[in-house]
Amino acid sequence: MVFYPGGEHLTSWRLPGGRPADYVTFEYYEHFARTAERAGFAALFYADELYVWDRFASGVEHVANVRPEPFGLLGALTRSTERIGLVATVSTTYNEPFHTARQVGSLDFLSSGRAGWNLVTSASDEEARNFGLERNLDHAARYRRGAEFVEVVTGLWDSWDDGAIRPDVASGRYADPAGLHVLGHEGEFFRVRGPLNLPRPPQGRPVLFQAGSSEDGRALAGRYAEAVFVPGSAPLPGAQRLYEDYKQRAVANGRAREHLLVLPALSPVLGETPARALEKLEEIEALTPDRLSLDWLSHHLGVDLSDRPLDERFEFDFTGGSNQVQTVFEGVRKLMDRERFTLRELYRTMLRRRFLPGTPEQVADWMTERFTHGAADGFTLAFSSLPAGLEEFAETVVPLLVARGVLAAELPAATLRENLGLPVPPSRYR
Ligand SMILES: Cc1cc2nc3c(=O)[nH]c(=O)nc-3n(C[C@H](O)[C@H](O)[C@H](O)COP(=O)(O)O)c2cc1C
């Protein structure tokens, strides 16, 4: 389950039952984590970015921009939960791998093997400006840095052989020097000697999640990721092709196809009838000012569109490409290749297509079909409203999935790796 504090829609925080004043209180998150664990979710993935969305005034005025940083929060949640995986978002562009190896490795110890990290490359210039740069690294460089980052982090986790640290009070021998490995990494972006001041984590390596469907993003996933978040809105044949593409990339990198899990994003909007579900989605949309939706599209296309007419046919020159989230940029391009849109129709379509309105049965059918027809190994649930969307899903859709035998009634008390069916990777020095 993915969560932005207020929910998946730009203005989900305005929905009835929302608690926008509580986004920095621990109890708010503890309630989600416990509800998700009871419902049998394998992991709670905490989304994060390193900036306030203030390129446009509407972003500051209308978007819930505040949240705690992941490691303090997930560390505290290790005490409130027992089985659910805890996945922290880490920007490989604006972190150092030594810090990340310690943070994620420590979370793995504190949670007894439930840690994961979501590798993001950070897509906004606003983030660059918080770290001494005027502009973000270009897309390809971000992904090269991401790949090198993974090599360094996993290398640092292998610093100590299992069993090398075995304190013997009588002899005064704390560790066996033969079991220590100094990484000595020198690459394009990092020089890291190592070793890490932490033993090898309980899972060997905490589970690596990743999102990003650009060519560079898929290449990185095929090489390193163990679970990948992919857009979920494509019709079944497209979703199957995407699924197979990731599996083939894993195989091309000498990995087993089952060791890269493909988890399409799903944002259900549930109603007792299909009409009621659609009405609920429209209620959410009605809470989003047009200006904010327009600024959202401007952000993703990298051009301020505020002086363009909203209700005339919209034309856009895509040849300049994007240094932002390419998945969204390409999504707009493909949509406009197929159909004509006004600007208003375009942002409405883009913002709507990530949501699946339906009855609990329809949503369970959709999930079951994808799961059993080679399009998903699981799902990344991003709820349109919180906490209500999660509670409603747990009460209505989860029992249907359990009854159909596609979801276990309870999460076994095990590591995140075991719950996801992933093997423990051997140390690179073995
Ligand atoms: C389900 C999902 C969750 C994501 N969560 C985050 C996040 O928490 N922080 C972030 O900076 N980017 C997040 N992203 C964005 C991706 O990490 C990535 O930067 C983006 O998809 C752009 O990659 P691309 O240019 O390869 O398409 C998320 C993407 C998806 C699909």
TrEMBL record:
The UniProt record lists the Luciferase-like domain at: 14-373
Q: Which SUPFAM superfamilies match?
A: Bacterial luciferase-like
Q: Does the keyword DNA repair apply?
A: no
Instruction: For this UniProt record, give its keywords in alphabetical order, as a comma-separated list.
Output: Flavoprotein, FMN, Monooxygenase, Oxidoreductase
- List positions binding FMN: D48, T89, H139, Y143, S213, S214
Q: Which domain of life is it from?
A: Bacteria
Task: Name any one Pfam family assigned in the record.
Answer: Bac_luciferase
Q: InterPro entries in the record, alphabetically? A: Diverse_substr_monoxygenases, Luciferase-like_dom, Luciferase-like_sf, NTA_MOA
Q: Name one GO molecular function term.
A: oxidoreductase activity, acting on paired donors, with incorporation or reduction of molecular oxygen
- What family, per the record? Belongs to the NtaA/SnaA/DszA monooxygenase family.
Q: What is this protein called?
A: FMN-dependent oxidoreductase (Nitrilotriacetate monooxygenase family)
**Organism per entry:** Kineococcus rhizosphaerae
- Please spell out the taxonomic lineage of the organism that makes this protein: Bacteria, Bacillati, Actinomycetota, Actinomycetes, Kineosporiales
